[in-house]
Amino acid sequence: MTLLTLLLQAPTGAAAVPAASPAAADSAATAANAAANAATGLSLIDLVLAGGWIMVPLFLLLFVSVYIILERYFTIRKAGAVSETFMPGIRGLMVKGDLQGAKMLCAQNPTPLARMIEKGIRRIGLPLKEIETSVENVGKIEIARLEKNINVLGIVAGIAPMLGFVGTIIGVIKIFYAISSTGDFGIAQISGGLYTKMVTSAAGLIVGIVAHVGYHWLSIMVERMVFRMENSAIEFMDILQDN
């Protein structure tokens, strides 16, 4: 009886093994697909291309911002390269009455500050009020030249994020249009479209941050230059009043 029972149970156990095989195969296939997707990843170029045509104006705005930041930085830095001995030298020459030497010293320093002082020297002989007005006018012109195109960075900082959001909204509209057309409302379809369209928002924010930081950085540099020019103008007027 025991031998007969064992013989009857043997086929049942053998049949149980094949029954578990499809489930194991499915699990293995799922794990393999997940591993393959994780290994493949998503490159930066793929993300940029997934952003669509809206990435083109964003890249143009980024290029313009970087160009303005670098160009203005070197221009303002060059404009501020005035020796600490410049104003003491002007004072010494003017005290001696050597106006021609003072003009030559200004010509040797092609900076906004030197051009402003040179304008004042050329107006010597006129009332002090007129000389002061001439110096102030030249100073305003020089500062306006230093601030050239800096306001463009402020504009870019404002429109780049909004342009990125527009790209994302367009992508979301396309996703829901596809859902309404096909009737396929799946998490994979929605998430797959959203993460690619969010690229434009991220790109817009990055461009906006670059432009915003550049705008305030250059503005601080210009403010320092303005402060230095104002001090030099006051010192120049003091020299005229003392003599």
Automatic annotation (TrEMBL):
<dbReference type="InterPro" id="IPR002898">
    <property type="entry name" value="MotA_ExbB_proton_chnl"/>
</dbReference>
<keyword id="KW-1003">Cell membrane</keyword>
<dbReference type="InterPro" id="IPR050790">
    <property type="entry name" value="ExbB/TolQ_transport"/>
</dbReference>
<feature type="transmembrane region" description="Helical">
    <location>
        <begin position="199"/>
        <end position="218"/>
    </location>
</feature>
<dbReference type="Pfam" id="PF01618">
    <property type="entry name" value="MotA_ExbB"/>
</dbReference>
<keyword id="KW-0732">Signal</keyword>
<dbReference type="GO" id="GO:0017038">
    <property type="term" value="P:protein import"/>
</dbReference>
<keyword id="KW-1133">Transmembrane helix</keyword>
<protein>
    <submittedName>
        <fullName>MotA/TolQ/ExbB proton channel family protein</fullName>
    </submittedName>
</protein>
<comment type="similarity">
    <text>Belongs to the exbB/tolQ family.</text>
</comment>
<keyword id="KW-0472">Membrane</keyword>
<feature type="transmembrane region" description="Helical">
    <location>
        <begin position="150"/>
        <end position="179"/>
    </location>
</feature>
<keyword id="KW-0813">Transport</keyword>
<feature type="signal peptide">
    <location>
        <begin position="1"/>
        <end position="25"/>
    </location>
</feature>
<keyword id="KW-0653">Protein transport</keyword>
<feature type="transmembrane region" description="Helical">
    <location>
        <begin position="50"/>
        <end position="70"/>
    </location>
</feature>
<dbReference type="GO" id="GO:0005886">
    <property type="term" value="C:plasma membrane"/>
</dbReference>
<feature type="domain" description="MotA/TolQ/ExbB proton channel">
    <location>
        <begin position="111"/>
        <end position="230"/>
    </location>
</feature>
<keyword id="KW-0812">Transmembrane</keyword>
